[in-house]
Write a structure and sequence with these properties.
- The protein is mainly α.
- It has seven helices and no strands.
- The chain has one domain (1-137).
- 76% of the residues lie in helices and 0% in strands.
- The chain is elongated.
Length: 148
């Protein structure tokens, strides 16, 4: 079971790294943000895009670190990093204002919404999987503990 969890995590991390990069640097751009602020009837916030992309870079790095799971070595620190990154990224679907979804759909259609939906929704599924298997096996990466 442990090898399977590591493989699933590594593959998901590849997908989430690409999805986060697409969302942060292609989908969310000056035009999308301008439309989002317009829909929200709010004044554009100076530096918002820069700050958004800085946070995106942190998630890209965190997801990229998760790719190390493909090495098949159950590192404890990696489990906790992957769990933290994915648990917080999973909140993205709820944290993204509805105006951003509308602006994205108007500019890119449904395909433009997919990077965030797959990444954030997938992060929720991966987080639940890691938590449930850790609770069930009482170990990280579903590693079997020797009998005492």
């Amino acid at each position: 079971m442990g090898e399977r969890i590591l493989k699933i995590t590594g593959i998901a991390s590849v997908i989430f790294t690409v999805g986060t990069a697409l969302h942060a640097f292609v989908i969310v751009n000056e035009q999308t943000l301008a439309r989002m602020f317009e829909l929200a009837e709010a004044e554009p916030t100076p530096g918002f895009l820069t700050a958004f992309r800085a946070v995106g870079c942190l998630y890209i790095a965190g997801n990229a670190a998760g790719i190390l799971a493909l090495q098949g070595k159950p590192r404890t620190w990696l489990f906790w990093l992957v769990l933290a990154v994915n648990a917080t990224q999973a909140a993205g679907v709820a944290a993204v204002p509805p105006e951003m979804w509308t602006a994205t759909r108007e500019r890119f259609g449904v395909p433009g919404m997919l990077p965030s939906l797959i990444t954030d929704g997938g992060a929720l599924v991966l987080t639940a999987t890691l938590v449930v298997t850790a609770a069930a096996t009482r170990s990280v990466w579903a590693q079997k503990r020797p009998a005492r």
